[in-house]
Amino acid sequence: MDIIELYEIDSTNNFAKDKIKAGVNEEFIVWAHRQIAGKGRQGNIWESPEGNLYMSLVIKPNIDKKNLGQLSFAASVAIANIIESLIPTDNKVNVKWPNDVLVNNKKISGILVESDSNSEWVVIGMGVNIATAPETAISLYDLDIRISVREFMEKLIIELGLLVAKIESKGFVAIQQEWLNKAFKLNQSITARLPKETIEGIFKGIDENGVLLLELPDGTIKQILSGEVFI
């Protein structure tokens, strides 16, 4: 798979989508040393100084378009698996619905999956704090782990490829339990911010489509398709 390496770009996802519009035939990766307009979910800014991983994987997966959001779960599990293999076991690695990775309850990675209804291509944007992190987040260097950005990226390409292949062959159920095993605040009280409201309840897991299942005070289960869970 070709890797397009750039020193500075506005956003690896934007660059990838422009390449798709221009016409591509093969899967590829965009890797930037620095982003000047990195973005997260819901238009949030992703701080992107040099020393961290900023990449977008462009693939054409054999997955129904309505299920493409499942790829963010695969990406978070892949990143969490790699981090777990690098850091001491007394640290806690979690995945937070829908697409963050936490270490010791601090964010170390975020994922943004984007696609176009008129294209079969999918862009999986991933950011991992390797050398630095915002004040409320954490990096691998903070954990005394020294690994190059390229080495982490190479591990991620392999790990994510295996997880995507599982979804393609067996469906989301193939990685659902892997995600749940690392889920942040499973069976605990959480606050979920939705587009039009903020609600509290017990996080009961995710269904076979990755939808969050929230038990409300009256015992009913609310299905949440889109939103954000507070740390």
Quick rundown:
Helix content is 26%, strand content 31%.
How would you describe the overall organization of this protein?
26% of the residues lie in helices and 31% in strands. The protein is an alpha+beta fold and 231 residues long. The protein folds into two domains: 2-181, Bira Bifunctional Protein, Domain 2 (BirA Bifunctional Protein, domain 2); 189-229, Roll (SH3 type barrels), CATH 2.30.30.100. A seven-stranded mixed β-sheet has the order 1-2-3-7-6-5-4, with helices on both faces. Strands 11-10-9-8-12 form a five-stranded antiparallel β-sheet, with no helix packed on it. Helix 2 packs across helix 3 and helix 2 (70-86) crosses helix 4. The model has no long low-confidence stretch (mean pLDDT 91).
Topology:
Elements: E1 2-9, H1 12-22, E2 28-35, E3 53-59, H2 70-86, E4 93-96, E5 100-103, E6 106-115, E7 122-128, H3 149-170, H4 173-181, E8 189-193, E9 198-206, E10 212-215, E11 221-224, E12 228-229
Parallel strand pairs: 1-2
Antiparallel strand pairs: 2-3, 3-7, 4-5, 5-6, 6-7, 8-9, 8-12, 9-10, 10-11
